[in-house]
Each structure stands twice: as structure tokens, then as C-alpha cells.
Amino acid sequence: MPLDRWLGIYHVDEWASDQRGGVYFRTGTGPDGIGPDTMSYGFVYRPNREGSPFSRYMVRRLGGDWYWFRASNDWF
Hints:
Elements: E1 2-7, E2 10-17, E3 23-31, E4 38-45, E5 57-63, E6 66-72
Antiparallel strand pairs: 1-2, 2-3, 3-4, 4-6, 5-6
């Protein structure tokens, strides 16, 4: 869902939640540098390993249940 709001020092353009309890805050998007595909970046609270509302993704733990994520619309 569109948010377009500053949360602290981060501008969050979209947020989403999934049925497994993860809450996602997307802070940026851009081209993947190879083709027409799009990369999304942001933070997630309690992610699941099955995927995200922003397509398949990779996460890195920040602390507690918070993670940084990057997602691509072409990974499978």
C-alpha cells in the first residue's frame, strides 16, 4: 500500500504485510543495472523465507526481529 511518508530518517514509499506476520517498509526502488527489471530495498519486521509482497528477496539481520531486504521482480 502506498505510504509516501518519512519515518525517522527514512522515506517509506510503500508498506505491506503478509499472512505469515512479516511487515515490510520499502524505502527505495531502482533498475537492477542489467535489464528492465526493478530492485526494491527496505526494512522488514519478522520476515518469512518464502517471499515478500515485493517479490522474491534476500534479507540481512539488523537486530532482534528487524532485517534489511532487497528484492527483484525477476528472481525465482
